[in-house]
Amino acid sequence: MKTEGQTFQPTALIIDDEPQIRRLLRTILEANGYRAVESATGADGIAQAAQRRPDVVLLDLGLPDLDGVEVLRRLREWTQVPVLILSVRDREDDKVAALDSGADDYLTKPFNTAELLARMRAALRHAQTPETSATFVSGQLEVDFSTRQVRKSGKEVKLTPIEYALLRLLITHSGKVLTHRHLLTEIWGPKSVDQTQYLRVHIAHLRDKIENDPANPELILTEPAIGYRLVPQ
Questions:
Q1: Cβ of 55: how many Cβ atoms within 10 Å?
Q2: In what order do the strands lie in the sheet with 11-15?
Q3: How far apart are CA 150 and CA 31, in angstroms?
Q4: Going residue by residue through the chain (233 aa), what tens digit of pLDDT does each one get?
Q5: Assigned architecture for domain 135-230
Q6: CATH of range 11-128; options 3.30.390.10, 1.20.120.140, 3.40.50.300, 3.40.50.2300
Q7: What b-and-e string marks burial along 107-127, b requiring 16 or more CB atoms within 10 Å of the CB?
Q8: Are the C-beta atoms of residues 127 and 199 closer than 8 Å to each other?
């Protein structure tokens, strides 16, 4: 438990069968204020997650005993700890499968250290954000969920019902990649999972209304061929 005067040191669980990767990640994490715990197999990783209760999990997909997606599914049966996938698999279907199974983010190896740390911070912020909060503020954007009002620089922004629903869903999962399939299913229903162009149009309209520079968005980011991620400023 954190006491007065102490600095919070989040625990990161590394589940990866490559000793070199675990060593690299431990070095990076410990140099940036994390406590690192290592597991070389999926089964041990699940056990460590239950025992250590980490604040974030870094999970490889190519484990010797269990596929990483299966490990993820088992974790999601009892915990919502942020899980970031670190894998050499870069196919779109692998990324979508992991994200749809509950991963918070996905980075391919080799990864950029600064980007990894930034995405870990985003995942931790999302995990620590009270879901009952009635107001979301990011930069010049303010969303009051109790009144369904959206303001930018203090001025009310008129959103269509679909635009508002998209924005609320992205905010609810801020920092997390939401796949096209997830967004389409949540907003339009399971029969609309192939209508990605329809989704792009609505995202574009939403950006026009809330981004300072819609052509270079800073709030709603695109994960190419995968989906979208809202990054609080």
A1: 20
A2: 35-39, 11-15, 56-59, 83-87, 105-108
A3: 40
A4: 444 445 679 999 999 999 999 999 999 999 999 999 999 999 999 999 999 999 999 999 999 999 999 999 999 888 889 999 999 998 999 999 999 999 999 999 999 999 999 999 988 887 765 444 578 898 899 998 878 899 999 999 999 999 999 999 999 888 889 999 999 998 888 888 888 999 999 999 999 999 999 999 999 999 998 999 998 87
A5: Orthogonal Bundle (1.10)
A6: 3.40.50.2300
A7: beeebeeeebbebbebbbebb
A8: no
Alpha-helical (H) ranges within the chain are 19-31, 42-52, 68-75, 92-100, 113-128, 161-172, 180-188, 196-210
Each domain of the chain, given as residue ranges in start order, spans: 11-128, 135-230
13-27 as b/e: b if 16+ CB within 10 A:
bbbbbeeebbebbbe
164-169 long-range contacts (CB < 8 A, ≥24 apart) are: 166/202, 166/203, 166/206, 167/143, 167/206, 167/210, 168/143
Q: How many CB atoms lie within 10 A of CB 227?
A: 25
Reading the block at residue 148, the tokens are: 């369904």
Eight-state DSSP code of residue 131: T
Token pair 């939403």 is found at 206
The answer for 53, left when phi > 0, alpha when psi is -120 to 50, beta otherwise, is left
